[in-house]
Amino acid sequence: MISYSTPPQPGEFAPYYGTYISHVSATDILGALDQQRREMVLLLSGRGESDGNLRYAPDKWTVKEVLGHICDAERVFSYRALRISRGDATPLASFEQNPYVQNGPFAHCSLSDLVEDFIAVRRATLSLFRNLDEAAWTRQGVASNNPVSVRALAWIIAGHELHHRKILEEKYFSLASTSAASTSAQK
């Protein structure tokens, strides 16, 4: 059986990534990553720029910041996968998400540009993973002082996107629907 068609096992990733990995029900991780690209685009297509600035609470990221974070995290995880898949044994640094979002240009980007960025990042991720040989999928390295396999990184990328898409669907866009419905009812 090809390594990428079975989920990673404990020991291939830090325990805190288990939540993300558990979100992924697919066994074809490449197909799942490709399907996610389409689903995210469908979720965000037709949304106005004001939707990109939504926050479901004052201390939470905007939709544009969430999407920018998804892209940044995917780039970091894919970079880790590239390094480890090529046999680079250098321990890789941790990734602190809040400074990335705080220092990202997301507020100045259009939502449509960020969607295009997501598409480009996901296509690059898919290209990387599709071109790995069997041995590369099982290679392990160290990131954030924890062991991680290339296979686990593919599942982490998919689970991370699912985690944030669910938040967008439930907390941001249900809020927008509720607000629009209450505004219509008041007219």
Give the structure's gist in a few sentences.
The chain is mainly α and 187 residues long. 63% of the residues lie in helices and 4% in strands. The longest helix has 37 residues, at 150-186.
Describe what you observe in this structure.
A two-stranded antiparallel ribbon has the order 1-2. The radius of gyration is 18 Å and the shape is globular. The N and C termini lie far apart (60 Å). Helix 2 packs antiparallel against helix 6 (111-130) and helix 4 (63-85) packs antiparallel against helix 8 (150-186). A hairpin with a 2-residue loop joins strand 1 and strand 2. The protein has helices at 18-23, 29-44, 49-52, 63-85, 97-103, 111-130, 134-138, 150-186, and strands spanning 140-143, 146-149. It contains eight helices and two strands, in the order αααααααββα. It has 187 residues and is mostly helical.
What secondary-structure arrangement, pairings included, does this model have?
Elements: H1 18-23, H2 29-44, H3 49-52, H4 63-85, H5 97-103, H6 111-130, H7 134-138, E1 140-143, E2 146-149, H8 150-186
Antiparallel strand pairs: 1-2
Structural class: mainly alpha
Rg (C-alpha, Å): 18 Å
Beta-strand share of residues = under 5%
Shape: globular
Euclidean distance between termini CA atoms: 60 Å
User: Count of helices?
Assistant: 8
- Fraction of helical residues: 55-70%
**Helix and strand succession?**
HHHHHHHEEH
Largest sheet: 2 strands, antiparallel
